[in-house]
Amino acid sequence: MSEKSKQEVSKNWPWVVCWLMFGATALNYMDRQSLALVQEPIKTEFKLNNEDFGWVMAAFQITYALAQIPAGFMADRMNVRLLYMVAVGWWSLAAMACGFAPSVLMLILMRILLGMGESFNWPCALQVTSRILPPAERALGNGIFNSGAAVGAVVTPLLVPPLTLYFGWRVAFFSLGVLGLAWIIVWRAIIRPEFNSLFDSKREQNESDMQAASMVYLIVPIGLAILSWVMLAEQLGKFRWWVAATVFFAALLLQAVVYQANGANRRTSWYDSLTQVVRMKRFWILVVVSVSVNVCWHFLVNWMPGYLSQDRGMSFLKRGLFVALPFLAADGGNLLGGWLSREVARNYQLTAARARWLVMVGCAAMVSSGALLGLVSSNVLAIILLAVMAMGTAGFMANYFAFCQEVSSRHTGLIVGLLGGLGNLFAGGFLPYAGQVKDVTGSFAPIFVIVGVLPLVGLGALGLFWGFSEPMAEGE
Q1: Which of 352, 314, 304, 373 is nearest to 150 (CA)?
Q2: To 5 degrees, how large is the angle CA 142–CA 147–CA 153?
Q3: Would you say residue 208 lies in a domain?
Q4: 385-428, pLDDT tens digit by residue?
């Protein structure tokens, strides 16, 4: 980097980058959430019930989960400035293509491509904040870019229903994709090539990292996934897709544990990096946290419009307005959660990790309020509870992301990818299950009880096993 470029990188520059990633995250959520907002015309056009539509949503979620592995690995080893830009272009084109789907199968295929592209957002963004911000500032940086998810979730219900009402749901999909292409232009203009040294991988490159030889370790997980899909096809019906993906993920991690136990530690490929990650206790603690909070968040993103429509009887446009309010609260939760953990650490002389956990206790209590939704008759009170629930979930996630960055700086992208993959995998299996419960019981109330208490499980695992007096594992 030239001297002039170095001078331009002021102390405020990292925060400019965080706000740019905020924009990408907002677009990420706009593209994915649009499907939930237009579920009625899609269900009518393709003759789907709630469980069927849940699988259309799950197609994105499961693919997103599996793609987190290569996304995280690539974020650790490639220039993140370029990788991020390509990923945004990929998912924007996939979002536009959803508007041209002639059948439900083609729509599912386009959602699969969307999931592949969007899987890069969090590994890339967290890799960037870990490089340009010190540990004490990362929760706030994460809160800034992650709040884009809530902003996207606020803007989308205000934009998509009117577009759908006047031009059709296909035009709405196409319009959102165009915005992503515009973001690329801004990113290229502000994050110029002379800043590449800040975004290049800090790891030493090894040619064998990308060799096809390491891919042999995928044979067993893929084989078991296919076998489980075939054997359980009749018993599990459509859930066999989720079971196969889960078997693949579980077999991959178990195989890595055994591989490490045999003493091999060559550190030459993506698989060797995986074997190092799976022997970290803190990684497995965060697996529990990730699953618990992702199931809750993605249920809100995907089924809140359906809940307000089917359980609360709200009209198409009115529902869009009320869906925006809880996500506006979530935006505040992202920023407040990150800021509050920093202030608690400063004012009470606590470690950053302990301060984050204390903030997460309050956030989990807010999420638990959602369990009362089945008892509430007032629509106004229901929206308030949804807002409290969304704010708590977002604040919980902003601090959870900071814990992810303290497992190992060497493998941040891979760790985030694995954790996000597992969290989204379980969220993906939960979406059609939630639709099935609605079809059978006629209410989403039982599901709100489940998602209301789930973050307490992750909070308990973090509090009991993290070890707040232990140093960060930055060098592992």
Answers
A1: 304
A2: 150
A3: no
A4: 999 999 999 999 989 988 988 888 778 777 887 898 899 999 99
